[in-house]
Amino acid sequence: MGGTLWKFSAAQVPQLDRKLMPTFAFSGSKALLDVSSAAQGNIITGNPQDSYKYCVANVPNECVSGSQQGDVYVNAPYVQYPFCNYPSQAASMPDEYDICIGDNAMIYNSLMQVNGSVTDITGASQRSLGKGLARIRETDAFWHAHALANSNWIMFKTSYAQDVGDMIFAMELPPATTDSVNRTAYETLTIATPPMFANMATAYVEYGYGEYGAPANLFCTSRAEVCAVGQPSDEPFFFDVTESSKSCLCPAPPDARFRSPCRPSTWFTLGGSSRTAMEAWWEPARYLRVR
Fold it and tell me: Would the pTM count as exceeding 0.85?
């Protein structure tokens, strides 16, 4: 496309699931800024002011006029490899530029602490200690930390933390904690509704996380669009503008209850009750609004 704008169709990024996992996007060692939203037209261009940005179209004509659902646009200069390039298992890419976009797992580029005394197939006995100030594509395959004798501190080497050279860091480990939260499923959050909602037959809840902006935004992903849960669906949530047809506009069953979109076994209780329940993805939403 024009300037330094690249386009990838949905078929070229088949494993991008932005409702289930955060998105990583980078060109070489440069992180890309997500400018996806419900706005129509040419939101991202090939001009220098849009360098190191990307946009994913949720419906046609988002990001760039004429786009189709699932199209991905990236403005990245100096690209040598218009794909996600891995030259070898142990090689980094400090001076080369490719384009990578995909689902960002919690363990990716992380210093992990793992309990080796148990058999764990769900990840419940491991935790991320952070990224160690490491830069994308500038860690080697054998990057790891060393624990001190008392096991309260670890030391590790990070390259290019200040854009040049290697640095040795020390990190004090937070205390080990255990809880009863099942992080392989949704977590239930109970919401008290005002009296004016007492006789409602249907409702949906808008929510967001602090990582993605101010409380009034109600963004639950890096995409700048309000997130909500409503009528039954296989999806964990819907986007309030571009997927408004998925809001709860259906009549409630005779017992004034309707199923949660997050898990069919969970119900919202409406009508005769002053309380409702919703399930948020991974953790309770910090900001909520009931409509």
Answer: no
